[in-house]
Design a protein that fits this description.
With 333 residues, the protein is of the alpha+beta class. Helices cover 57% and strands 10% of the residues. The model is unreliable at 63-105 (pLDDT under 50).
Length: 333
Amino acid sequence: MLTHAWIIPLVPALSFVLILAFGKKLPRGGSEIGIASVAICFVLALGVGAGWIGRVNNPPPLVRNGDSPAAVVAGHTSGAEASTEASGTQTHSSEASSGEGGEEHEQVTPPVVRQITWFQNQGVTIKVGTMIDGLSALLVVVVTFISLLVHIFSTDYVAGDRRYTHYFAFLSLFTASMLFFVISDNTLQMIVGWELVGLCSFGLIGHWWEEKANSDAALKAFLTNRVGDIGLLCGMIILYFAAGTFNTVTINTMANAGEIRHFLLLVASLSLMTAVMSKSGQFILHTWLPDAMAGPTPVSALIHAATMVVAGVFMIARLYGVFFNGLSIGTGN
């Protein structure tokens, strides 16, 4: 599952299509499809978690600080598969550390990356893929588990609702979007997942849109998050032109190695922090969050308490090298 994690967001994405296409013809209005798909995702997520624990306990060939930088990659190049097993042929590097007795080495468990070439243009190759490390392995389990509980609880909470089928379709799409965001290999995919999460939030907050207060709350959440998304796009664009790649591992490595100007890292960090503030409901872009409770209560539990509002925190963790160096965190007293 470490190299086939792309299946996890694919399952609820297919569920979204199936619920819209056939949900109203089914005995339970399509909720059975949503619950089954998220249950499958949860089992697969447990497989990812178990696989990562096994990888940490039985790591691939020793990776030490100071070794050559790279990644454990399983992917495709020009349509032909050139995959490596999770044991990996390449590894990420960390900064070398030194002590009184000389250079200290500590073992690093490299992430498992699977990539395919999306397109090539004038010598620039854009790849998409998945990256599984301890952070993403934990989040896929959390997201699928909470989403499963919300799906089950919602069957009774919105029973008889006028848009019962559409409600479960949007829950499935949100779950797929959040999982896609969590396992993204690069910043371009993170932008797509980030925006899809916001779109689903808009639809679910305004589920009972006939009431003006609900539609106003959904619109307020949408517009406030768009303000933060301007910072997201600016930050990601700066990082791309500064590092020459969308790959998060490469960006972090270059930031830690001092290969990106500090001023660019600072501007990118502040821009991305704006996006985090809006998505997580932090001051001063917090005004949308209280009104968002106009949506169904399970939606508030899934999106505004457990998953979507922590997307910004996840992004900081994923690009921590940028924030650490850009905001000069390591130089504080």
